[in-house]
Amino acid sequence: MVTVKINGKEITVEDNTLILDAARDAGYDIPTFCYQADLVGVGSCRMCLVEIEGQKKLQPSCVTPVLHGMSINTETQQVMSARSSMLEFLLANHAMDCPVCDKGGECELQDMVYKFGPHTGRHSEPKFKFHEKDYQLSPVIIKNSNRCVQCMKCVRVCREVVGANVLGALGRGDHQEPSSFFRHFLDCDQDGNCIEVCPVGCFMRLPYRYQARPWDLKGSDTICSYCGVGCRMVIEQRDGVVLRAKAQLGVGLNSETLCARGRFGFDFVNHPERLTTPLIRKSGRLEPATWEEAINTIVENVRSTNGAHIGGIASPRLTNEELYLFQKLIRGVLRSPNIDSTSRWEQNAVESYVAATGMNEGGVSVFDCLEADTVLVIGSHLSDENPVTDYIVRRISANRRMNLIIASPRAMKLDSSANTLLRHNPGTENAVLNSLALGVFAANADKLANNDSVKALKDSRIEDLLTLAGVKDSEINTIAQKLHASSTVSIIAGTEFLRFPEGTIGLAALKNILKSLGKKVLVMPTLDRANQRGAWEMGVHPNFGPGYSELREKGRGVDGMLLAAQNNQLDVLYVIGSDIASMYPEQELAVSALQKVKFLVVQDMFLTDTAKLAHVVLPGSSFGEKDGTFTNQEGRAQLIKKLLPTPGKAKKDIDIIRAIGEHFDRSFGPKNALLVLDEIRKEVPMYKDVNLLFNNRKNTENKLDNKASLVAAADSAALSIGEFKTKVERKTPDAPFQLVTGNHLFHSGKYSRMSRTLLGLVQGGEVEISEEDANSLGLKNGDRVKVRGRAYEATLTLRTKRGTKSGVAFIGENFDDAPIGKFFRRGDDIPRVGITKA
Amino acid sequence: MEKILLKNLDKPDAHKIENYIQYGGYKAFESALKLKPDNIIQMVKDSGLRGRGGAGFSTGLKWSFIPKDPTIAKYLCCNADEGEPGTFKDRGIIDNDPHLLIEGMAIACYAIGASNAYIYIRGEFAFGANRLDAAIKEAYAKGYLGKNIQGSGFNLNMYVHRGFGAYICGEETALLESIEGYRAQPRKKPPFPALAGLYGKPTVINNVETLSCIPAIIEKGPEWFSKIGPEKSPGPKIYCVSGHVKRPGLYELPMGTTARDLIYNHCGGMLTDKPLKAVIPGGVSAPMLTPKDLDTPLDFDSLAAKGSMLGSGAVVVMDESTCMVKTAYIVNRFFSHESCGKCTPCRDGTPWLTNVLRRIEHGEGKPGDVELLESLCTNIFGRTFCPLGDGAVMALRGALKNFREEFQYHIDHKRCMVSGR
Ligand SMILES: Cc1cc2nc3c(=O)[nH]c(=O)nc-3n(C[C@H](O)[C@H](O)[C@H](O)COP(=O)(O)O)c2cc1C
Ligand code: SF4
Ligand code: SF4
Ligand code: SF4
Ligand code: FES
What we know:
By secondary structure, chain A is α/β, with parallel strands linked by helices.
């Protein structure tokens, strides 16, 4: 700790505190342009100059740490005149077109000139202009360089945080222009973080252009509804139309960053095809109906049905409150054990995943994970599936000594931050983790002699594991060595463990072995749906109840329900927000089974493929139209807040669920989201003390991690890890590639397809293979290719990626012209495909 | 004075290694290899050598900041960017006596424990770069570079890095950025290059002339060196004289030679019978001297005492036919053109100065322009990220201080006081 004087006021702060932060602590704000807490300091804009007694020159407070005994003045005449002179210089070549600038009203330059002057201009020389008209940098970014203050935050965020590294500066001196390579169109992550950090109207959102003034907008502080990262953001509307989503510096774990989905994907809320009235099937066609008719029809059909023949599926994008109530309805009121939240993961796979990652042991903060000596990312394509986690890992790993190991069949942007990369065959996470376990065991044979996991591994031959995984002995040894040498290890384990649940066995074993060696081990799951974890914790799962509690009887998951339907044993199916007909990994089967359900109720925002098969369709709500909580992948409960009313006659999902429940049980409730949350706190001890307040509090200290928002450990949980074996279709000469899936960077399931902005970012389906494979096939990036599997064939655009494992092909689960479900068959986890020029 | 730095300039083909060796070259390196690195650093400290790149920092002291840990890679970068207008001394050495520089660098590397050295050479110096490449090749062949040099166990690789045509590339941290492949813009200090320089490793950056002094210090001893010139900044100095003198060119003289001695004795006096009006003593960033200051010794401290600086030792002599407004404009235009763009006051302030000066020079000056210039100078000076912006201000302030009435005349009469046009 050091003591310094700031404007005569004595203050004690930690060593190496920047003068800027110390002054802010002492209550003196210092204006800045180039400073940003999350970026490496550059000290270039000179806005933050202060006086240090005994030093001749003013010093930049944003890069100068305090020294003991320093006497600092931040408000002297000299400092004030330096501020206004910097602003005068910045204005010299500034466009001064505030009346037509999107940033007007929330521009840092405007605000600072207002505050510090100069209020009259002395510059009467001709201005230098970069260009006449604004130019487009991407489908979502438009630029006006004449307004630039050259803080380089755009360039720095792109390099240091996003890792896309596509921005730089052209020219020199006052001709210096931060932009893309010679202003070419950007082929990048399109996340618009450059827009967010730009203090002036230089980088701008194209979809928001000329739409509103900041004072016209009404906003609500909420959570992104796409992936499991759980980014905090503000969505803003004008006249009932959501116009913008923005992140806030120092708020939420994402601070000022979002990915393309979060920043640009909100426009589905105002999509013209939103369902606005209930529909009932009458003589084969879905016809508009009143709520009364719709609910009555449901009640009639359900009343006489045996619970065992009822099923309920609710989307992991609903709030905890909705899911909790849904669970109460299905289990408590309709007396059915058949409940699930996702059509993609097999029910025992989920249970094993929850057990192996230890989700029942409470939340794990990503920031804690990144304090470990070694961080292993496996089964998770972080860069595309959880982009903001990718940013966090990049930023933190750049600033501390740690091992970052990435094991994945596919190359990813984050690879460049890793110390060690492992490219293994798809679905072989188990073999990788087992061979690592054997490697760690070899170095600690004496200490581990009695370890159960080791005993279970004794039969495995390392050679077989290596062949299966397609990795080298030396690669495994290097990683095992690093694990062995670390006293803290974090494992970030993603959705591949749900697709190929065999991996959960290896994950649990390695975790156990490392722990029994006295190491601190943290496992953080990564998920691709905003409230997937919440759905499970609310008990929307056939194997466990709320808080992973044990059930008297396990029910059927989606697989089981569809099978039952196929055998005419499912009489009623109530689906909320889940498009099984297009997302189930064997599409034909799903559609034919749904057709056999005697009474299908679908509640959704859109007339999805599943809704088209329904007998009753109920118009539900988007995340912008309701209050509630989401639990992100870390186990952080966070508030979402209503911005708009539901369109037309559509209703909040919680109200629809309750309306149905009340027909069977007058006391069914509670009545609103807040009361349901109270009940959750009582009934699900994991949620008893979660602190939701932090989410709305501006945190000037840039502390993004509030442990009080993490769920606690479950009281008791009866979870076990199943027996699994990943099955790969046999290789044939015309189908050499193993096909895997996941989310495209710009999409999240099919849900994001209703965002026209996101649709504009990638035209049509893509298949990705390694650049090396493409070369040997005589193909190149951008070619149209035929992808032929045993069950299906599609013509797609080829994307090549350097560093992906040879023989791996990837198609996102998001494209209508690449229905991934048609390539797959239940039972074969990994189909084979051939790729030829179209 | 016996020539030390330019001693081989008139000898035929000194750039060839056989000749260089024949003239006594590489002996210093051979004897240095028998000394302890620390002793060499001490010798350089004792010699009193101060950097010839501009700032005049003690070379031995700079070397001594390099951590001794043998497991950390270290670098030496020779600054051969020679960007300061009026300066052409480094080029004289590189083009004619490249082995002198290589030898000096080799000794420096041995002293600081660097096994890789870069020569960052101004992009326009194609001839010099090729000379250096050829000379380095010869040195490898003769075993003065490469592995296990002269059986000492010391390894050294040397590379020539061609620059990218910007004045800022000569600023030491911008130079490092440029070698690493980034845009040349200065880095924030601290950390200083001695701790985290090239590729984040401890690095010494020295000017060509500085490094070329080293062989003589080893050969003849620090005592001998420290006796040349003034006590506080000893050694030989190459003055680059240009402008209105009879014999412009390179003059190696003891540090501290006066301007008068240099101009009237060594350079043969003024070019015509027009009297001297002003002298820029150390490259265009250095404020000018007027005839009354001609007896100032041209060394670091004496010039600093006069409010100017030795800089690179580029002496620009101007006679009465010179318009100071035009001079100030041209010099300022250079700085605003070369501003790297990183910091606000220099990026946006220097072009503003240039625009006002251009107007005044072109007869479009307005009342209040001189005061505007002065006020802008105040707003730039001491607030820039690196010394480039300060340099621009110092030069202009020098002209305004000594020739204010010329500026005012331009504004009031819309024409030049000197030429009448
Ligand atoms: C804008 C600017 C340009 C510079 N250009 C050069 C140059 O061309 N050559 C040079 O040797 N030093 C130049 N310097 C000085 C270097 O930054 C550095 O001080 C010098 O190379 C150190 O070497 P020395 O200790 O041997 O003098 C420049 C400095 C600044 C601020
Ligand atoms: S475009 Fe914006 S963020 Fe980038 S340098 Fe200019 S003002 Fe800063
Ligand atoms: S999709 Fe995920 S990473 Fe992207 S903004 Fe939303 S929560 Fe954050
Ligand atoms: S003073 Fe600033 S703009 Fe000028 S060269 Fe230095 S860093 Fe670049
Ligand atoms: S905020 Fe400190 S220099 Fe820009």
